[in-house]
Amino acid sequence: MNNPKQETKLKVRPACESCGVRALCLPVSLDGEALSLMDDLVKRRAPLKKGDYLFRTGDKFKSLFAIQYGSMKSYGLTIDGKEQVTGFHLTGEVLGMDAIDEDVHHCNAVALEKTEICELPFSALEHLQNEVPSLQHDLNCIMSREIRRDHHMLLMLGSTTVEQRMARFLLNLYERLQKRGAENNILNLSMTRQDIGNYLGVAFETVSRQLAHMQDEGILEIKNRNIHLLDVDRLEAIAG
After folding, report:
1. Going from the N-terminus, what domains does the chain have, and what CATH number goes with each?
2. Is residue 157 within 8 Å of 165, Cβ to Cβ?
3. What pTM, to 2 d.p., does this model score?
């Protein structure tokens, strides 16, 4: 007799067609048979626990990874061996595209909380492009979105005040969560203040001071790791 608990585990992750975030991580033009073919190649991985690595610098590139639920950070090491956070990745976003060119990962990706991942073997994805001509265009669009986010980050660090960086960081999270159907202005920060400071190029004490100042100004309210944005318009004004 089958174990009912085992059957339940097998049904934890929905198929691509019924997944609530597929429009964010998969080509939007896929439907019908094409979507079924995509679903066949996706591998459902065991959930990552906080602190688990998805891949490390130097690992051979084999797959792209879509976050079905949870969040991750990517980081590299500076010349003197210090960690440099290069990005935070949320539900519906894709990791691994930077490794396509040289077939090797150039950063580390670690879970910030319990995170569920869908693995898309890249060789199978390339083969599917022969059957679904629109796939290449849509994958290029996803890649363009990632490049645009990195470009925004470089601009943010290049010529902004600390207050502007903090405001833009919060707005960036807010906008990404809105695309995922969030119905409130509450940001659940799975990353630490130290990670945020590392990413923004400031000390973690500075992050805490900036958040406290914005709370005093009535722009937001802090409750542990939850930040409730009370005045998005003022935050946008600060961001410039």
Report:
1. 4-146 (2.60.120.10), 160-239 (1.10.10.10)
2. yes
3. 0.83
